[in-house]
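Transmembrane 4 L six family member 18, pasting as requested.
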Amino acid sequence: MGSRKCGSCLSCLLIPLALWSIIVNILLYFPNGQTSYASSNKLTNYVWYFEGICFSGVMMLIVTTALLVLENNSKYKCCQSENCGKKYVTLLSIIFSSLGIAFSGYCLVISALGLVQGPYCRTLDGWEYAFEGTAGRFLTDSSIWIQCLEPAHVVEWNIILFSILITLSGLQVIICLIRVVIQLSRILCGSYSVIIQPGII
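Structure tokens follow.
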């Protein structure tokens, strides 16, 4: 019962993380609160992967809903025995948690790539990825950020929001990994007995 409560608490933590991922990803489309850059497609290409909206957001909400339904289901009628039913539900929980790792991991990777690539901005040479060839070194050298003339403060905007997305999706990966470990321990450590009692057919 304790492990089930722990699993439910972990699943509930995924909800605010998913909602914040959606909000942060949406903000990436509006540097300085302006909509003109999104409408004219003058944003970094990695924001169009919808990593925070779809994968770390909506898909994680679906995964979380499925996990909460499984954890709150006290009736195991998929098999003839209760132990069989519990193992079946635990297996489903592992599958959904693994999907959660995949979805949030996708957001983590794409956000990291967007952070390292740098923003798409207007420089003296026109619209380009001003820091694409720096391999992320621009992140620690704020003196060269002035190369981006437009949108204003877009470098800080991208760094902060992509870093938040990395943090949120990273926490989701950790939570889902913990859930997988908990569920596997239930099976491997014998929480659900598979011994058939005499007289049970």
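Note for the archive: The first strand starts at residue 120 and ends at 123.
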